[in-house]
Amino acid sequence: MIRLEKRPTPSRFWTLSTPVIAVLLTMIAGGLMFAALGQDPVEAIRVIFWDPLFHPQFASYSRPQLLVKAGPLILIAIGLSLGFRAGIWNIGAEGQYIIGAICGAAFGLALYPSENVLIFPGMVIIGALGGWAWAMIPGVLKTRFRTNEILVSLLLVYVAEAILASAATSWLRNPEARGFPGSRNLARHPGTDNPELIAGTGMHWGVVAAFIAVIGAYVLLNRHVLGYQIKLAGQAPAPRALPGSSLRAWCCCALGCRAQWPASQACSKCRGPRARSASISTRATGSPRSSWPSWGGCIRWAS
Hints:
disordered C terminus, transmembrane helix, cell membrane, two-stranded antiparallel sheet, mainly alpha, Ribose ABC transport system, permease protein RbsC, globular
């Protein structure tokens, strides 16, 4: 009888080749679907994978967008890894991202038109605290009332979207916008702008923070006793506190780490280089759909 057994140590070859294989399988599966729809699969794969990097007309814009969009996604993935390792399933990243962006933008707009260099770091800190506070809602409900953090964090996304719509159309709306929804353009003011560090690359401080967070998370999970405790708590057959620790503290810590990094990145990413309109904006026609990894402001709503 054939039985699958876990390797005692991960294979370095498969660790390095797995992302490459995943991309190749994605291209093959996508090509088959395009072929089933009667489209040229080679042309479709070229448009999706090749043109954004090497197209002579569009690559100069699309290449920097890779880093701009990757920054918040990297931080969200790191937060997910910490929460999942601890056995906490928080899937409300979008809501935490939105609230973090609103809090950070509100801080910057409250000090408009000041050009103090401390405004932007303050926006990042306030954004992180806003996302953390939003994540504490499912954390407190789970530890005190044993609610399901998956459902609570997911449903809070819709509450955050409603708050965003209210902010864009009322208390954060640009008074000079002639009634159109959206806040002031934060990229046009030195105190709230987050310019490129290297021209034409999309590299700004939010991307730098994401790379630093990757290294920090690796050290934490693989070289620090706290990371060992996080993994041990997640592997326990039943929720229980480790000696000298609190189960409530572990739960809130996992949810908080899950929210702080992407929420702080919401402020820095949305005012990144080449932003079309770095503001809190909304286009709500029918049922709104949040498109938080996209350009066009801290958070945009698209129909």
